[in-house]
Amino acid sequence: MKGLELVFLAGGSVLGAFLRYKITESPLLFNTLPLNVLIVNVLGAFILGMFVILSEQWNLDGRYSLLTAVGFCGSLTTMSSFALDSSNLLDNHHYGTLVVNLVANTGLSIGALIGGKSLMAAIING
């Protein structure tokens, strides 16, 4: 990895981590469902979906993928917190909420990625 590539990666990572921290610093629960992690995962997937279309359409240099896809979206989203929240729900015998958490994080994130791609394609193609 070259120096400028590291700068792009680090810049995106710092911005993504900062935004995740701000969104998740105060726990937001719906009953026992942790919403903060769901929000960052869905938001990150949506941004990634938009970026994929922009990157393809504009034939962006790979450094922008380091900045946005790997750095920013990778630091914004959080599989480890999702796994911890799910484990805590399991440990506390909140099985229904666990299923909702699993389905919501995976399903809504995939839906958001597809939605971001669709929205950006519609904007670009007019």
Short key terms for the protein model shown above:
single chain; 126 residues; mainly alpha; 5 helices; globular
Chart the SSEs and their pairings:
Elements: H1 3-24, E1 29-30, E2 33-34, H2 35-58, H3 62-76, H4 79-91, H5 95-125
Antiparallel strand pairs: 1-2
Helix pairs in contact: 1-3, 2-3, 2-5, 4-5
Concise account of the structure shown:
The protein has 126 residues and is mainly alpha-helical. Helices cover 83% and strands 3% of the residues.
Structural overview:
The longest helix has 31 residues, at 95-125. The chain is mostly helical. Helix 2 packs antiparallel against helix 3, helix 2 runs parallel beside helix 5 (95-125) and helix 4 packs antiparallel against helix 5 (95-125). It has one domain (3-125). It has helices at residues 3-24, 35-58, 62-76, 79-91, 95-125; strands at residues 29-30, 33-34. A two-stranded antiparallel ribbon has the order 1-2.
